[in-house]
Design brief:
Elements lengths: L2 H15 L1 H5 L3 E6 L2 E7 L13 H17 L5 E10 L8 E12 L2 E9 L5 E11 L9
Antiparallel strand pairs: 1-2, 2-4, 3-6, 4-5, 5-6
């Protein structure tokens, strides 16, 4: 399998067991080694008391894109931490797109930057995730 086929297989295996991402209606629009794009439409049940998307759900979208990007090489990888800055509110009906890009990968650790934008291309949030690879474990066995 070439690297792209591996990334796509990882996406399919992970998504099959990712109840949280599926519950939120996320789609993994693209995946490649060290990169992933996830989308989510803001629903009424995602709004907080100010009628804007709950920040935790924006973070969840970014975290899911991060997870698919850092596992795309079929090396089982988990988050060791992250930070998020929310720059603009997301509203009912907004289609949010989180684009995760690998910034650094060295040994068992990685650094990923994720930009979350709405359907107008406006930057909603920036997320930086730190990853840790779990030895030689795989997402799926070839």
């Amino acid at each position: 399998m070439d690297a792209q086929a591996v990334a796509e297989k990882v996406r399919d295996v992970m998504l099959a067991d990712d109840a949280a991402s599926r519950m939120l209606g996320m789609q993994i629009a693209a995946v490649a080694p060290g990169r992933a794009v996830a989308t989510m439409t803001v629903r009424a049940d995602m709004l907080n008391g100010f009628a804007i998307c709950h920040g935790g759900l924006i973070a969840t979208l970014a975290d899911s894109a991060f997870a698919f990007a850092c596992n795309a090489r079929n090396a089982l990888t988990v988050a060791s931490g992250f930070g998020i800055d929310i720059l603009k509110p997301a509203k009912l009906g907004d289609v949010l797109t989180a684009t995760a890009e690998e910034t650094s990968l060295a040994g068992r650790t990685g650094l990923y930057d994720i930009a979350v934008r709405n359907q107008h291309g406006e930057l909603i949030a920036v997320f930086r995730g730190r990853s840790y690879r779990l030895g030689d474990r795989k997402v799926f066995e070839a």
